[in-house]
Design brief:
8 helices; four-stranded antiparallel sheet; single chain
Length: 191
């Protein structure tokens, strides 16, 4: 059942080449992550084409000088976890993933990830679509943080991603919005 859910999540990005489902059915492994467990760029785990089947994760950056964290994105059931060690665009910050609760994901090994394009060259398009979605979401959030007021960012988040309000701490949500936790508390108090 989880594999059917996994394939449905993959199809949201692109058509699957004939035979890919059979290959992945054999290659997919269940990955278990404990609450507060982290994946860093220096200690990557086998999370290639990794789709969350239960739980939640947070992508965040840590400034190398100030050690200040900023939440960049959150992932829930049906979301693919980005390959953080392939996304280091800013040399002043380190990217990490933290699991916000006990989490289960289906993933393949790096060996399979690198071998698949030899059998299914079209899969490179799927890989690019998944990574591109992560990049574009991050770029959009960075732009909106710069041009929108805290109130507008808060209102948009309530409309576009209401599930975050029940699952995140005030600190994580404030960091994601680019505001101080006290400001977030004040905005929540207005409603």
């Amino acid at each position: 059942m989880e594999t059917e859910y996994y394939f449905a999540a993959l199809r949201k990005y692109d058509q699957l080449p004939i035979g890919l489902e059979a290959y992945l059915t054999q290659a997919l492994k269940t990955r278990q992550f404990k609450k507060k467990q982290k994946i860093t760029q220096n200690t990557p785990t086998e999370t290639f084409l990794s789709c969350i089947t239960s739980g939640a994760a947070r992508l965040y950056s840590t400034d190398r000088e100030t050690h200040q964290e900023q939440s960049l994105d959150f992932f829930f059931k049906g979301d693919f976890i980005p390959l953080i060690y392939h996304t280091d665009l800013n040399q002043k910050k380190d990217l990490s993933i933290e699991f916000l609760e006990d989490t289960t994901a289906l993933a393949i090994t790096e060996k399979h990830y690198l071998f698949l394009p030899k059998i299914f060259p079209q899969i490179l398009h799927l890989y690019h679509n998944i990574q591109q979605k992560h990049y574009l979401n991050q770029i959009e959030r960075n732009i909106l943080r710069e041009i929108l007021s805290a109130q507008t960012r808060y209102d948009q988040l309530q409309t576009l991603r209401p599930e975050l309000f029940n699952r995140l701490s005030i600190i994580d949500m404030a960091s994601f919005l680019g505001i101080h936790p006290n400001t977030l508390s004040a905005l929540r108090g207005k409603k």
